[in-house]
Amino acid sequence: MKPHLLSLALLLAVPAAAGATDGNWFARVGLHAVDPQSGNGTLAGGALSASIDSDIKPTFVIGRRLSPHWALELLAAAPFRHTVQLNGVDALDFKHLPPTLSLQYVFAPDARVQPFAGIGLNYTLTFDESETGPLTGTRTRVGNSFGPAAQLGLVFETGRAWNIVADVRWADIDADVSVDGVDVGEVSVDPLVYGIALDWRF
Q1: Structural domains in the chain?
Q2: Backbone phi, then psi, for 165, in 5-degree steps?
Q3: What does 134-183 look like in DSSP terms, one character per residue?
Q4: Rounded distance between C-alpha atoms, residue 60 and residue 103, angstroms
Q5: What's 104-143 look like in SS3?
Q6: Pairing mode, if any, of strands 162-171 and 48-52?
Q7: Which burial class, exposed, middle or buried, applies to 81 when counting CB atoms under 10 A from its CB (0-12, 13-18, 19+)?
Q8: For 81, which DSSP code?
Q9: Distance of CA 161 to CAs 79, 99, 104, 112, 120, Å?
């Protein structure tokens, strides 16, 4: 995780741990599916067409209502795992972590159903590449990515501390790919991320 995102995560978490339970903090635990766009670019000067499959993992959010209409949240997740196909053949598995910081606007903060929109920054940390098929015997690396992110969602108030949240996100994720230290191109992931979570206010 980038140092500034880690610092912000600690900044958000410390007041909660210290007992700052004014009802404006929230924590969310849920599941999100990362669904990369179809057709993820070409490598090796256009000779190889890349595609990346989807994955579902648990996600975690810590955030705070700054005012009735504005909120700040940080999304974290268990590592997502994807398979890259080159010209339709499995070639590479890799994992990534996608911490995302978002500023949200809540349209109807007093309603039982509260639509919200968010905009922010995503940092995708890629690791644990494993080559197979046409890449067997090579050292293949997928680079990290930093870019904008957007979000639309709904909070379903239950009248208790626990609520339900559904959202869809988009992130601009473009990663350089190298094989045996040689840059062979860039994959454009740009996924839609669908999720549902339990929301706890404290």
Answers
A1: 3-201 (2.40.160.20)
A2: -125, 130
A3: GGTTS-EEE--EEEEEEEEEEEE--SSSEEEEEEEEEE--EEEEEETTEE
A4: 16
A5: EEECCCCCCEEEEEEEEEEEEEEEEEEECHHHCCCCEEEC
A6: unpaired
A7: middle
A8: E
A9: 28, 25, 20, 13, 26
Q: Report the sign of the C-alpha dihedral through residues 75, 116, 121, 181, in that order.
A: positive
Tokens read off for 132: 């197979």
Question: Which among 186, 171, 61 has a CA at the least distance from the CA of 123?
Answer: 171
Is pTM beyond 0.85? Reply is no
The pLDDT tens digits of the residues spanning 177-200 come to 999 999 988 888 889 999 999 999
State the Cα–Cα distance between residues 198 and 29, nearest whole angstrom.
5
Structure tokens belonging to residue 150: 């957007």
**Phi, psi for residue 13 in degrees, rounded to 5:** -80, -35
